[in-house]
Each structure stands twice: as C-alpha cells, then as structure tokens.
Design a protein that fits this description.
By secondary structure, the protein is α/β, with parallel strands linked by helices. The chain has a domain at about 5-145 and about 245-255. It has eight helices and eight strands. The strands form two sheets. It has a six-stranded mixed β-sheet. Strands 5-8 form a two-stranded antiparallel sheet. The longest helix has 20 residues, at about 5-20. The chain is globular and about 50 Å long.
Amino acid sequence: MSGQYRNTIRLCKEKLFRILRHGKKKEMTVSNYFSEERIAVYTVIFGKYDVLYEPKCCPDNCDFFVISDTVEPPSGSAWKKLILPEEMLKKLDGMNAIRKNRYVKMLPHLFFSDYNFSVYLDGNIALVTDPTEFINRMPDVGASFHKHVSRDCVYDEARAILDQNKAPKIYIYDLIAFLKKENMPSHYGLLECPVIVRNHNQSECIEIMEAWWELFEKYPYRDQMLLPYVLFKRGIRPDELACLGNNVRFCSSFRRYQHII
C-alpha cells in the first residue's frame, strides 16, 4: 500500500471522527491506520482517586491495559487488567498510591517491553480518537506531551502551587532552591503530563524517564515541575516535545473528567 494512499485513508478517518464528534454520536468507533506496530494504551489507578472510563475509539492496533489495586474492568470492557509479576509487586510494595502511579506512569518500558509504543492516560482521561496520529509525529526524543496551557516557567508553576496549596511548602521551597542552584533558567518551557505518548523502548526516552523518576523520588509531589529540569540537563526544550497540542482540556482527541475525590 503506497504512502499516499495511507495518508488519504488517515485524512478520511480524521474527517469522519470530526463529523461523529460534532454530531454528538456516542457509538464506539473502530479504526485502523494500517500500523504495523501495536500500541499499548494504559491507565494507572491506585486507591480510589479515579474510576475507569471506556475509550470512545478502539483502533485495531491498540491494546488497552489498566494497572490498579481497586478497579476491575467490567464485562465487555475494552480494558484488560495487567497482572504484575511478583518482583514488580514487591517493588511497588511500601509505596503510597501517588508513588505507585508515577512509577508506572514514568517507566512504561518496565511494563510493556513487548510493545514499542505506548499511550499513558491519567485515570480521568478517556481516549476519543486514534492515537496512531500521535505516534506518526513523534519527536526524535521518543516522547510527546501537551504544552502547559497557561505557564512556561517552573518558577511560575511553583508560585501557583504555593498559592493553591497543592503541595507542602517546604517541598516547593527545597525544589526551587535546587533548581536555582542548578541554574535552571526561567521561562524554559513547561509541559502537562496527563497524557504521554512514547516510543518507550528508545534509549533516549528511557534515560529521560528514568531521570524523571529518580528526581521524583527526591521531590515526590508535582511531577510536571520536574520534567523541564530533566530536559534542560540534556539540552532539550520542552516545546520540542509538545506534539500533542497546546491544551489537553480542549484537545478533541481526549475527554477529561473530574477526579472523584
């Protein structure tokens, strides 16, 4: 099949998705971008922070997994529960729900080694369109995010977190001191992380994700504040990875719900 024909099929399907959304159709759509690679779409729910939302689009080349200690996919669900091996359960044992979530969120190569590509979704996010479009425009680094909707600076983000009491103040002050000591520049860029698309077995992607997790272990509250520093140390601008769009809340490819607590 020629590349031109594949592109025509892709554009037709994107147009169909727009028509279905604008017509407020509720039927689950099935699509196939003729990808030779399977994609692991996964969500992580530890504790009772979220419920499981069914995807609105189930492409033929995607497998859907939930990793959870509280949620069981209902009969007929697109989701399958990923059963973790004993050694991984031991690794997670002793972590609180937030750390468990971030560990799986940041390190998909440890959980989906049989897949090259993955799409992480926060528990309050539902997939609406075929994620293959994001795989096709993956940056060389091997990870894609949304650009932060209102800020481009970790220091501005820190002030917002302090104003909203979203994390212990001592943690934020310690993190700010660390970033300044490391000469982290202002307005370097900022990403939002409820959706992450990755070529997760790529070596550079693994290095970035592992460095992100190591930093989160030291500052275990606001993960998206830490990622710009990890990228800065590698000479990568966050905007280079903002391939999913400028606003996850209004991105037509995903539907965002309120957390239940």
